[in-house]
Amino acid sequence: MKILILSSLAQNTGCFLRANYIADSLKYNGDSVEVLNPLKKNLPLMLDLIISLPLNIFRVLFSDYDIYMGIKPFPNVTIPLILKKILNHKKIIIDIDDLDSGYRKGILSQINSLSQRPFPKHFDLVTYHNALLKKYIQTEFLIDSKKMYKLDQGVDLKIFDFRRKNLELRRKFANDNEKIVTYMGHLNIASDLDDIIRAIKIIYGKKKFIFLVAGGGPEESTFKELAKELDMDVKFTGHLKNQDIADYVSIADLCLVYYKDKVANYYRCSMKLRECMAMGKKIVCDDIGELKKFKKYTYQTGPDLNEYANKILETLDKGDNREKLGRLFIEKNLDWKKLGAKFLKTIKKI
User: Fold this and answer.
1) Is the pLDDT of residue 124 over 70?
2) What CATH number is attached to the domain comprising 254?
3) Is 313 exposed, middle or buried (0-12, 13-18, 19+ CB in 10 A)?
4) What's the domain count of the chain?
5) How far is CA 162 from the centre of its chain?
6) Is the same domain home to 180 and 56?
7) Closest CA to 322 of 293, 294, 350
8) Percentage of the chain surpassing pLDDT 90?
9) Residue 102: is its pLDDT beyond 60?
10) What residues contact residue 338 under an 8 Å CB cut-off, 6+ apart?
11) What pLDDT is recorded for position 284?
């Protein structure tokens, strides 16, 4: 089969990254898959969704694939795919991986929600990645469970290989006797790095370590300003390619994942958590949303910042090797190659 995948959001987003992971997993299992490149970066007030709509309509209608798949049900992807279904009788799939409207307030949140709602029911298959999100989709999008498929958030184990170790990169940030604490991710509206910085401030000076933020995004300057206000030395790398992100994770002695206790975070599945687990890293995270399911493999607290900060301090020098169990769990259950093989069987059914 020939499959075309469209990302609703720009190239510097997790949405586009998920599109590529899905594509690679299907390619590995024998299909011909192409990801249509979106705009390079998101624009203010979601203008990129408007600008990309006519472009996507043109590119989709003048293409010929057996299956078309969109990531996130924004109109710049759903409208072109529905038109393709009507005009050329193609099978179409939409992936819903978040409660996007939960990250914004007021009119933008309402527009976000309303713009997605009418379209998924017209697709042949709707994919999701956690049970709570499934319930939301069934209720708000009026989707029959028979048309739904759980497509987990996986890990590319070729990139996030636990044997990877960039010692030259490590020497740029720390001496042999210094520890590196790393947060990695896209610094956008969904990132809760501000609370992590505040937690680090609580223990700042109690133990010497390097705090490294691997990744960039539209909120990077905001987080830098917060670190400056708190008089903290935080190392920001700026935007990184996925291969480079893995190098930065490889040099970490401890990785951080944190969700604020807000509605949107209950519908998320953390890509960064899984990738750090795959590399066998000690991870301090809180227990909001799906994170609580990984208690067996992470050093976990509640969302209270004092509690979280003290757990960071404690875990820097201690541990019970649960991270090794976490790595094995990812290899067994969340390898994109295995997820792609299962997904391909469902695609063939439609």
Assistant:
1) yes
2) 3.40.50.2000
3) middle
4) 2
5) 19
6) no
7) 294
8) 81
9) no
10) 154
11) 98
Answer yes or no: do 104 and 58 share one domain.
yes
Range of the domain at 86: 2-154+335-349
Structural domain includes residue 311: yes
Confidence bin at 62 (pLDDT 50/70/90): very high
- Would you state the structure tokens that stand for residue 217, as one six-digit string? 């995004």
- Position 112 confidence tier, pLDDT thresholds 50, 70, 90: low
For helices 193-203 and 220-229, angle between their N-to-C axes, nearest 10 degrees = 20
Does 4 score more than 90 pLDDT?
yes
209's CB contacts (< 8 A; 6+ apart) are 178, 179, 180, 181, 253, 316
In a domain, residue 162? The reply is: no
What pLDDT does 45 receive? 65
Q: What end-to-end distance do the CA atoms of the chain give, in Å?
A: 12
Residue 350, beta-bridge partner list: none
- Does the residue 159 lie in any domain? no
Share of the chain above pLDDT 70, in %: 96
Do residues 114 and 80 lie in contact, with contact meaning Cβ atoms separated by under 8 Å?
no
**Which single residue is written with the structure tokens 């501000």?**
194
What's the rounded Cα separation, in Å, for the pair 28 and 174?
38
Alpha helices in 204-268 (DSSP H): 220-229, 242-250
Q: Summarize pLDDT for 285-332 with one digit per residue, the tens.
A: 999 999 999 999 999 999 999 999 999 999 999 999 999 999 999 999
Beta-carbon count within 10 A of 333 CB: 13
Question: Residue with structure tokens 């978040």?
Answer: 98
Spatial CA neighbour of 122 closest among 75, 65, 52, 54: 75
pLDDT surpassing 90 at residue 19: yes
The reply to whether 138 and 257 lie within a common domain is no
**Do residues 145 and 244 both lie within one domain?**
no
- Quick one: DSSP state of residue 261? S
Residue whose entry in the numeric block shows the structure tokens 């043109």: 58
Q: Tokens 């790393």 identify what position? A: 182
CA distance 246 to 249: 5
